[in-house]
Amino acid sequence: MWARIVVGAVFFLTGAVWIAQGTGALGGSGMSGHGQWAVIGVAALLIGSALLFQARRIRRARMGSTA
């Protein structure tokens, strides 16, 4: 479960940075202003969100079964 949380958080944060760079909101990189990175960032953000959601569901299921 912890691995999903860590990997999900990394994907989520990386996706957010890539979206910012791809849209030009965050400069200073070769990726800045290239729309393809915004699209890739959305995909990474969705993957991260899914992993975090799964980890939350697993945690709730475990806590519910031990109570």
Structure description:
By secondary structure, this protein is mostly helical. The chain has helices spanning 2-22, 35-66. The protein has one domain (2-66). The two termini are 19 Å apart. The mean pLDDT is 92.
What's the domain count? 1
Strand count: 0
**3D shape:** elongated
Tell me the helix content. over 70%
The largest sheet, given as strand count, sense and whether it forms a barrel, is:
none
The number of distinct helices, counting runs of at least 4 residues, comes to 2
Beta fraction: under 5%
Name the helix and strand elements from N-terminus to C-terminus, one letter apiece. HH
Distance between the termini: 19 Å
Radius of gyration based on Cα positions = 15 Å
Mean pLDDT across all amino acids: 92
- Content-based structural category: mainly alpha
- The low-confidence runs, each spanning 5 or more residues with pLDDT under 50, are none
Kindly report the oligomeric state of this protein.
Answer: single chain
